[in-house]
Amino acid sequence: MKIAVAGAGYVGLVTGVVFADLGNEVICVDIDPAKVDAINKGRAPIYEPGLDEMLQRNLEEGRLRATTDLAAAVRESEVIFITVGTPPTENGEPDLKYVDEVARVIGESLNGYKIIVNKSTVPVGTGDRVRRIIEQYRREPHEFDVVSNPEFLREGSAVHDTLYPERIVIGTDNPRAAMKIVELYAPLERPMLITNLPTAEVIKYASNTFLALKISYINAIADLCERVGADVVQVAKAMGYDSRIGPHFLQAGLGFGGSCFPKDVKAFAHSVERYGLDPTLYQTILAINDARPRQFVQRISERLGGLQGKTIGLLGLAFKPNTDDIREARSIEIIRYLLQEGAAVRAYDPVAMPNMQALYPHITYCRNAYEVAEGADALALVTEWNEFKQLNFERIKSLMRQPNLFDGRNLYDPQRMRKLGFYYYGVGRGEANQHENGL
Ligand code: UGA
Fold first, then answer.
1. Is 28 a catalytic site residue?
2. Measuring from each residue's beta carbon to the nearest atom of ligand 1, which residues come in under 6 Å?
3. For 33-49, what is each residue's pLDDT tens digit?
4. According to a count of CB atoms within 10 Å of the terminal CB, is the N or C end of the chain lower?
5. CA 429/CA 234 separation, integer angstroms
């Protein structure tokens, strides 16, 4: 099949590369010439395991190319994916200007029947909006269909998630369009659901909001655990054995960041309000999450008797492991509070440091975890990268000014850390925090 993918961000590029790998002819389109150039040279402009290799293979075999010329790509393709960004506006509603612009160009370039598939996360009703824009700008009465096909891939495992999705949702009122998209995904042999357009649009937001709800829920439980001397890790484990609850997304800690959950929950709250419904549930998910970094810094400050003149080392900056993405990363807020209260910050992340340097050029960036520990009054684990799991903590301790360990992701065994001579704080680990530190 001939496919154009408009927007070569995370979703677009990975989708394009995977479809090419399945044997389709794919044109990736982006307005940024530097991105297009990098893709055509076989270098993905984002860090994603396995992506570069797959990109290079498909470029070499001639199934993939990138361009800035959307109109030409539309004319050559039967299926056009819209995977552009929908950044939040001031009030948290998604800005649809890029979606609108792509729809306009598609309308102007329509030269035969085409299927326009929306993969960007967009508010309910956007499919209709895209349809109206294309109708408004089309120069000849060619037919077209609009499909909503939400994306569920996670950053850091985007290629894997695209190859092995747990479900594929295809939302459209026209069976002809649905069958064409089914055909495109058929080689993956995964469960497919065909729905109407608004149903598919709701599925995306309902799924992300529910996952965010699980995280905020366990974080609220974590706060209670700290007060009553309970251990949230064990609470979550026991809850997770109940198959109706499940073990996933119940890791208490610093809360959720990234380009999806914070933005999507906010957008969903706005949407339900616009339809005359009560947004309190969604606002509460955000409020619990927003409080996490402040609370974490507060714990460090309490332990150290204030942060003025203290040195705090941060392990990890990315919003989660295996990505260089720092959008809405908890580290941003943590650094802001630490600096506000007069602390000096040292930090290390395996890949996200260049991104953070643009935001905070004046904190100290280190080459590894040990360098971060040098002279630190406290070490805070912010992102649970694999390489932080097996550190030599004896060495870390010997490098620090004071052996205080604040585990924002509950990565370490509290007993072991205490035995090594650390003061250990884990989020929601009331039992460990109270007894094992001899408090
Ligand atoms: C999320 C969804 O998981 C994907 O299914 C969806 O396609 C994507 O958003 C999207 O809408 O594009 P992503 O933002 O890449 O994917 O990251 P997640 O792995 O879901 O993690 C999000 C945040 O939640 C991270 O900051 C992570 O540290 C945090 N988290 C996750 C927790 O604090 N606790 C948990 O138990 C799980």
1. no
2. 121, 151-155, 208, 211, 215, 249-251, 253, 255-258, 260-261, 319-320
3. 999 999 999 999 988 88
4. C
5. 9
